[in-house]
Amino acid sequence: MGAYLAVSLIGGAMALENRSSLRLMLSQPICSGPIIGLALGSPSDGLLAGLMFQVMFLGYVRLRGGRQPDIPLGGAAAAALYILSLRRLGGAYGGTALFLSLLAGLFVSFGGYLIYRVWERRSWAVQSLAVRYVLEGRYRLAARLHMAGLLFHFAFGFLALILVVPAGVECIAALAVRAGNGWNESIGSMRHALPFIGAGLLARLYIAKDRSFWFGAGFLVTYVLTLFGS
Amino acid sequence: MQRSYIRHLWRLFFLQSTHNEKTMDGLGFYHVLAPEMRDWARNEEELEEIASRSMGYFNANPILASYILGIVQNMERRRAEGSEPSIERIERMKSTLSAVLSAKGDYFFEVVLIPLGLTIAGIFGMYSSYFGPIIFLVLYNYYHLQARIGGYLTGLRAGEGLGGDLVAQLYKEQGALAGCAAFASGVFAALAVVRAYAFGGFGLAGWGVAAAAGVFLLRRRISVMWSVVFVFIATAIYLLLS
Questions:
Q1: I need a surface site. Which of A84, A89, A105, B39 has the fewest CB within 10 A?
Q2: In the prediction, which pLDDT does B139 show?
Q3: Chain B residues whose beta carbon lies within 8 Å of the beta carbon of residue A99
Q4: What pLDDT shows up at residue B229?
Q5: With the C-alpha atoms ordered A115, A116, A120, A125, is the resulting torsion angle positive or negative?
């Protein structure tokens, strides 16, 4: 229970960091993965899960007003699920556990996106209440109302992880055992295939932005150097 | 005075707590300026007017919004002292700078700096190194904290005089950094191919290139979330069948 609580507290803090515009970027999966791993005593597994989640969204550009998947929360969920389900499975079925954790993380990201669509529509009510307070001369209360928004962000991250992680660990452990070793070996190479998703998004970002020369140069130099290196 | 700066700076970091579709960060804007508002007003009616005005529509890049808040605070102070800037001029400055700095900030931070830092982190991460996330955090926060803290203090010191030159002076290195980001992306893509080939031979590397092409094309039609989910599941099916 202590592990689930620790993970949920970190999830709450990451959601707060991401949504409040604190934006130190600790909530990016590649950073939050090792942090969660550190809290659970397995930073290298946290780094792996965080990295795999991050590379899928490498070329994603967050623009205000656009549809934003909740990548930080999804990454935190994926890292926690991977570490705890791997522990539950005694270190076996790592490939299946990683695949299912990342899939669950993607669902959490989508859930976060849906919840925040509603929040951004409804949080206007908070501002209209603040306006009312200002008209009544209760200026401090109006300012505090803004800070109360932080509680919502924290609570959302905390609740999402405390609900998803314990149930997710049970499901992943059961599915991984049921799927067996055949599945585990096949899906184990997922970690070598996922960077291509990020590479595709990056190519789209920079080729569309007319930086194809530098993208191509980076590709060719590395490819040639690795070829000669080996 | 120092305490007052710290109070404003602290609040700048929570500008978007009540981000909403109607006024965007209007309440956040008010929240940052709130501690000093009483000093700018001669009576309760004026305080109410300033507070209500501050809560209006405000949509800017949250990092470069620091400049705007510093400049507006400077102008409001001078207005309270009986100097020139009118309410209309303050509002015009606020909306003009919001539009211009949003375009600048969104491009520099979201299109150039974050992908660059994350790609470098991804390259290091492929080799299970913790240096990647550290390099990303240092690179990003160097610019981020400079804009947040330095931007606010510069805006506060220089006031509206800063407005004209600000956009031209900011991030002159963005072209070079964008080139670096594209180059790092190419390095990342090549390493993905090399590592997939070493692990799973031509089949895995070939599927990877097809997956990259799939995301590239899907992204033209559907959102990033669905593009990723679709290719992720397709990859899992391919791996299970092969």
A1: B39
A2: 97
A3: 236
A4: 95
A5: positive
Cα-based distances in Å from B12 to A155, B30, B69, B153, B163:
22, 11, 9, 12, 19
For the cut 70, the answer to whether the pLDDT of residue A209 exceeds it is no
**A:61-80 residues touching chain B, CB 8 A cutoff:** 61-64, 67, 69
Q: Are A127 and B23 in contact (CB under 8 A)?
A: yes
Let me know: does B25 contact B66? Beta carbons within 8 Å: no
Total residues found in chain A within this entry: 230
d(CA B217, CA B219): 5
Query: What pLDDT, on the 0 to 100 scale, is given for residue A230?
Result: 66
What pLDDT, in 10s, does the model give residues A122-173? 888 888 898 899 888 888 898 889 899 999 999 999 999 999 999 999 999 9
User: From the CA of B196, how many Å to the nearest CA of chain A?
Assistant: 5
List B residues 103-142 in contact with A (Cβ-Cβ < 8 A): 106, 110-111, 114-115, 117-119, 121-122, 125-126, 128, 130, 132-133, 136-137, 140-141
User: Between vectors from CA A137 to CA A133 and to CA A142, what angle results, nearest 5°?
Assistant: 35
Would you list the domain boundaries of chain B?
A: 2-172, 173-242
Q: What is the pLDDT of residue B42?
A: 86
Does residue B45 contact residue A145 with C-beta atoms inside 8 Å? no
Distant-in-sequence, close-in-space partners of A150: CB < 8 Å, separation ≥ 6: A16, A20, B14, B17
* Residue indicated by tokens 């994603």: A60
- How far is the alpha carbon of B119 from chain A, nearest alpha carbon, in Å? 7
ipTM of the complex in this document: 0.94
Helix (H, G, I), strand (E, B) or coil at B58: strand
- CA–CA min distance A98, chain B (Å): 12
pTM listed for this prediction? 0.94
Contact A218 B185 (CB under 8 A): yes
Query: What's residue A161's pLDDT?
Result: 97
Please say if the pLDDT value at position B1 is more than 70.
no
Q: Rounded to an integer, what distance in angstroms lies between the CA atom of residue A146 and that of residue A127?
A: 8
Residue of A nearest to B189 (CA): A199
**What percentage of chain B reaches a pLDDT higher than 90?**
67
> Who among A54, A60, A214 is closest to B183 (CB)?
A214
How far is A170 from A22, CA to CA, in rounded Å? 34
